[in-house]
Amino acid sequence: MYVLLLCSIFVITIGVERIVYFARADSGRKFAGEFYHLCAKGRLVDAKNLAIKTKGDLAFLLNISLDRINRKDFDTKIFFEAHSNISLAKFRARLYYLNIIITMAPLLGLLGTISGMISAFSIFNTQENQSSAVTGGIGEALIATATGLCVAIIALTIHSYFIQRVDHIVTDMELSFSAIEIQLQRGNKNEAS
């Protein structure tokens, strides 16, 4: 039970830390949509101003890329791929630990139940007619399984929430990066004609 208590504290700590990090580093779905529409209309200056005013990793990456977009030595695909992978790794940090706890907590609960039942049934070896002690011991042992399942459910809920947010961030990045790529292609076609 002490290990399950530590796991539950660890899950809550990771959840709070991830909430704080996402609040600081996620530029938001609204930003990505507005940025895309501004780029689609060819309003790169307005898109850059929006990126400057917005906090978060995506806005920062887009701001840097718009600063360097006209340089000949700047490859947007390599820049976006490298920096988005670094950013996504930071968003996914510590989520793996939640995945481990999701698997481990029910197993720890079962281990506690089994050890509790062994103790409860060992009463038969030492004392006769102690059925109430055995049933009480079994009931107490099952608390470990219930606790393990509760810890796993909480960890699964937190893990699923953040995985969904990471998926939205990936979509926002792809949308925003494609908007810049489209503008670059339009610019290259205009220069060629």
Automatic annotation (TrEMBL):
Major location category of this protein: membrane
Pfam families listed in its UniProt record: MotA_ExbB (PF01618)
Subcellular location per the Swiss-Prot or TrEMBL entry: Cell membrane; Membrane
Residue ranges of the TM segments: 96-121, 141-163
Entry keyword set: Cell membrane, Membrane, Protein transport, Transmembrane, Transmembrane helix, Transport
UniProt similarity note: Belongs to the exbB/tolQ family.
Protein name in UniProt: Biopolymer transport protein ExbB
Gene source species: Pectinatus haikarae
Lineage: Bacteria, Bacillati, Bacillota, Negativicutes, Selenomonadales
